[in-house]
TrEMBL record:
Taxonomic lineage from the root: Bacteria, Candidatus Uhriibacteriota
Keywords noted in UniProt: Membrane, Signal, Transmembrane, Transmembrane helix
Natural source organism: Candidatus Uhrbacteria bacterium CG_4_9_14_3_um_filter_50_9
Name of the featured protein: Uncharacterized protein
Signal peptide: 1-23
Annotated TM spans: 178-211, 223-246, 258-279, 300-329, 341-360, 380-399
Keyword Hydrolase in annotation: no
InterPro entries: Cytochrome_c-biogenesis_DsbD
Presence of keyword Transmembrane helix: yes
């Protein structure tokens, strides 16, 4: 009963997290605008043009007059320092959008619209045009990493974005859907080659044979068990994705996820090479008795609860790849696309279990698979460790 309550509590937490994330999404984001109240041209831009423009994209303006309010002047200095804006690109009007876009001065509206509509084409961007008297002739652009570039005022911002984009990133964007499909599918399948879940499923099937369950009954219970693992992993993934959305820094979280999966891969490798290594990526030992208790009940509800618990408890064993993929998805895709990819990821993740259930068609085959699983667990763990390290590096290089 205690574990059932724990599962229900987890469900409440996940649902609550989803509602919190939904409330977060409904909150109107603000744009911080620093300007000079005494400047007539600035006032018209900030109080007439910008409110209508940014409202089209769901933003409200947060105005900071740094002439009449000294605290705003201090805040502007602190914000420029935090962003790393060089003095030559600091303007009399500065508009900070989210954590990745800075508009300085009187930038053409078409340029502003483009960068607002295509945030996926840059990680952080500064667009600067400080001239407000006479004809505008040029503007400057900087991505906070490369060289500051100057372009004629009628040159599209896409020129800079294409020049600044690394060749590797351009290759990935050309692959588009299929590039993402390949990395997600391969990651999910290898993640699904999970010795923890394999061992529990084989134990469960073997037990069902010993108590003389029919093959049809074994199939039903096995499918319920696998479906529960799918549901548990999907809920975990949605919860993590919502937490990343709430953080407001998906690109940062994608990098953290990539470093995390590299670290877990190293831990996995050390745990195999050095058996006495203190950190183990496995099902917690104190939960095995609980899992076996539910398995021994040999009913469909017990199979579901047992599978759900396995999904939760194997997350420390194999969740590193999953977290890295979720971090990448939140930085690369919309909410709908991300949900689709998570549904697909988890389907591929449990596909090895479907194959295992199909192969374990009789008691002797199950015994052979159990021996094979035990004999091959070390090479498989080394393979997964190497893949985790490689996956983290790929995400850092190509997707963040």
């Amino acid at each position: 009963m205690k574990h059932i309550l724990t599962i229900l509590l987890l469900g409440v937490v996940l649902v609550t997290g989803a509602h919190v994330a939904h409330a977060q999404e409904e909150t109107t984001p603000t744009v911080a605008v620093f300007f000079n109240e005494a400047c007539k041209d600035c006032g018209e831009l900030v109080k007439e043009t910008y409110p209508a423009l940014f409202a089209e994209y769901g933003y409200e303006l947060e105005l900071h007059d740094y002439i009449n309010n000294r605290s705003n002047r201090t805040l502007l200095t602190q914000t420029n320092d935090a962003w790393g804006v060089p003095f030559e690109l600091q303007s009399h009007i500065e508009v900070f959008v989210d954590d990745n876009l800075l508009i300085g001065g009187h930038v053409p509206l078409d340029t502003i619209r483009y960068v607002l509509e295509h945030p996926d084409e840059y990680e952080r961007l500064l667009v600067y045009q400080d001239n407000m008297h006479g004809e505008e002739t040029a503007y400057r652009v900087w991505d906070f990493t490369g060289d500051i570039k100057t372009y004629p005022i009628d040159e599209p911002i896409t020129t800079y974005l294409q020049e600044a984009k690394p060749a590797s990133q351009t290759q990935i964007s050309k692959r588009g859907f299929w590039g993402l499909f390949a990395i997600i599918t391969s990651s999910a399948f290898l993640d699904g080659l999970n010795p923890c879940a394999f061992a529990v499923l084989l134990f469960f099937i073997g037990f069902l044979f010993t108590i003389k369950k029919t093959r049809a009954k074994i199939w039903k219970m096995g499918l319920v068990y696998i479906g529960a693992i799918y549901l548990a992993y999907l809920l975990i993934g949605l919860g993590i994705a919502q937490a990343i959305i709430i953080s407001g820094a998906p690109h940062l979280m994608a990098k953290i996820g990539a470093y995390l999966v590299i670290g877990l891969g190293v831990i996995q490798f050390l745990g195999v090479v050095f058996p006495s290594f203190p950190i183990k990526l496995r099902i917690p030992l104190d939960t095995k008795a609980t899992l076996e208790k539910w398995m021994y009940k040999a009913t469909l509800p017990a199979s579901f609860i047992g599978g759900f618990l396995v999904g939760l408890c194997t997350f420390p064993c194999s969740g590193g790849i999953y977290v890295a993929i979720i971090g990448m998805l939140t930085a690369q895709s919309t909410a709908v696309q991300g949900t689709f990819w998570m549904l697909w990821y988890n389907l591929i993740f449990v596909s090895p279990l479907f194959l295992l259930l199909l192969l374990a068609s009789n008691n002797k085959t199950t015994e052979k698979l159990q021996r094979l699983e035990h004999a091959q667990s070390v090479p498989l763990k080394l393979l997964i460790a190497g893949f985790m390290i490689a996956l983290g590096a790929i995400i850092l290089i190509f997707f963040t």
